[in-house]
What we know:
The complex is a heterodimer.
Chain A: E1 3-11, E2 21-29, H1 35-46, E3 65-68, E4 71-74, E5 88-92, E6 99-101, E7 104-105, H2 108-116, H3 138-142, H4 155-159, H5 161-165, H6 172-182, H7 190-198, H8 211-215, H9 222-241
Parallel strand pairs in A: 1-5
Antiparallel strand pairs in A: 1-2, 3-4, 3-5, 6-7
Chain B: H1 19-29, H2 31-49, H3 52-62, H4 65-92, E1 96-97, E2 100-101, H5 104-129
Helix pairs in contact in B: 2-3, 2-4, 4-5
Amino acid sequence: MTNTITVELSRYLPETDKAPWYEKFEVPYNDDTSVLEVLHYIKDYLDPSLSYRWSCRMAICGSCGFLINGEPMLGCKTFIRDYSDTASIKIEPLPNFPVERDLVVSMDDFVEKLATVKPYLIREEEQPVDEGEYLQTPAQVDKYKQFSQCINCGLCYAACPQFGRNPEFLGPAALSLAFRYNQDSRDQGKKQRMEFLNAEEGVWSCTFVGYCSEVCPKNVDPAAAINQGKLASNIDYGLNLLGLAGKKQ
Amino acid sequence: MNRNPYLQKQPANWWVKNPYYRFYMLREGTAIPLFLYSLLLLYGVYALTQGESAFNQWIALLRSPGMIIFQLITFLAAVFHAYTWFELVPKILVLRIGNHRVPDVLIKVSHWGACIFCTVMILVSAIYFL
C-alpha cells in the first residue's frame, strides 16, 4: 500500500541564502518508509541538490539527526507511518548547531567538546602486556555500560536549551562521556576530568531539563550522568576544601 | 572551501511549542510562589519582633480570602515541585547493595514517606502548641 505525504524541508544554500527557507515535496511512502528514505527519494527523483548526512541506516553511526516535527530524532529510526495522521512532516537541521547546508550542521565544536573530557582510559602506570587484560566483574561493567552506548549523534545538544543559550556549555554527550570513564574501574584519570566537570561550563550549567535523555536514541540518559556528576563535583569540592583531594597528575 | 554557516539562535519563546519544555518551565515556575511565600513568612518573623498586635495583624492578614487563595496556590506548587523532584531523584541517587541497584520505585517511595512523615509531624506539633 503506497500513500503520499507532504514533506516540508528546511533549505539553506550558503552561496546564495542569508537564512534558511522551506520547500515542500510530495513523497510516496509505505509502512516501512523511514524519514531517511524519504530524503533519499527526494534527492534521487525530485531535487538532487538536497544535502543531508547519513551512513548506516540502522541507528549506530549517528549521522542522520534532524529536527522532525520539532523533535530531535534520527532519520533512520523515525517512520512516516507514525505521522500518517498529520498533514505534513517538517524536517529541519538540528537546532543549536551552525547550519552548513540544507540539513547538514557543523559538528566541529561538538567533537572538540568530546575530546576535551579525555574520553579514554587513563592509567597512572600501564600494566605490562604479559600480565594480560584489565579484568572487570559484571557489576563493574554495569556501572558505566549504559553511558558508553553514545553514538555521538548530537540529538541531546539539539534538545538542550542550556546549550542553546550558552554554546560554551560542555553539554550532555561530553559530560556523559566523562562520567562513563570516571565510573570505569580500569581508569585512573578522574582527577584530570574533574577540572572540566567542576567548571561553570561543566555540570553546573545543567538545570536538569532532562529532554536530552528523552531524545537519546540509545537510552544513554545524559541527564542522569550529568546530575550524578554534580554529586561527584560536590564531593570533589569538599575534598579540595579539606586538602584531601590529592594532586592532579 | 568557502564556508558560510548559518548560526541558529535560540528564540526567546523556545519553550512554548514543545510540551516537554512547557512542563519544565512549569516545574521551575513553582519557585515564584515559593519565593513569595518565604517573604510572607519572613514578614511574620519581623511582625513577631514588633509586638503582639503586629503579629496578630499578620495572622489576620493570613486569614484574608486573597491570602488563603495565595497559600493554596503555594501549597499546590510545593506538592507539584516535590512530585517532579521525587521523579528525578532515582536518576541521581544510585544506591547499590552488593551487586544490586536499589530499585527506583523504592527510592521514590522512601522520599514520599519522609515527606509525608515530616508534614504530619509539623501539622501535629502545630496543632498541639496552638
